[in-house]
Amino acid sequence: MKPENHIGEKHGRLTIKDWKREGQYIYFLCECQCGTKRWFRGDGVLNGKTKSCGCSRRKGLTGKKYGMLKAVKRSDRKYRNGCMWICECKCGNTIEVSESDLERERKTHCGCQKETNLEQAAQQARAKNQEKNMREGTSLARIKSKKVPSNSTTGVRGVYYNAKRGYWYAQIKFKGKGKHLGIFKTKEEAAKARKAAEELYFNPIIEKYSKPE
């Protein structure tokens, strides 16, 4: 029978829509009951070896886990010659992933791990930078900085105001330990005490490690 005479025939879940010849083989363009259209070798379709686009086998993906993803159900959306799957990620997100990406484990999470990895990399970079700047248990970058913390209510580093008791006080942190510098009647006095403490504690170590090796 001529290949064109098979157009319209149904074999399993496949309906033949068109045909072509490539080399010594005949190929049929078939539409599966699931809606997928693909080219198959004609002999496989006619002898019954090829009965579907593979969707019958795909039903087995439901409930399967691929890394952090769990296949829930097949999506109505198609991807190239295959299908998409609605998947739940362990983080709670729901995404659509192509069947090929799932089975080949090219996609194992919704993208949340990328964000986590970026944050971990940032934390490691900050820790490495901090370690690089540590001298005798003190961060050189921190004690050299003149920047006032964003949460400061006085505008002066290490100076605070106790509104309940109506006094100012100053403190300084050096080598991981906090040092109380006293209680003062004015902000200026507290700031002066803080500056004197910086000269006493910070300046020697800054000068020591600022010298060329």
UniProtKB/TrEMBL annotation:
Database matches in InterPro entries: AP2/ERF_dom, DNA-bd_dom_sf
Domain of life from the UniProt record: Bacteria
Annotated AP2/ERF domain residues: 155-212
Stored SUPFAM superfamilies: DNA-binding domain
One function term, GO molecular function aspect: DNA binding
Entry annotated with the keyword Nucleus: no
Keyword tags: DNA-binding, Transcription, Transcription regulation
Region of interest (Disordered), ranges: 128-149
Name of the featured protein: AP2/ERF domain-containing protein
Origin species: Eubacterium callanderi
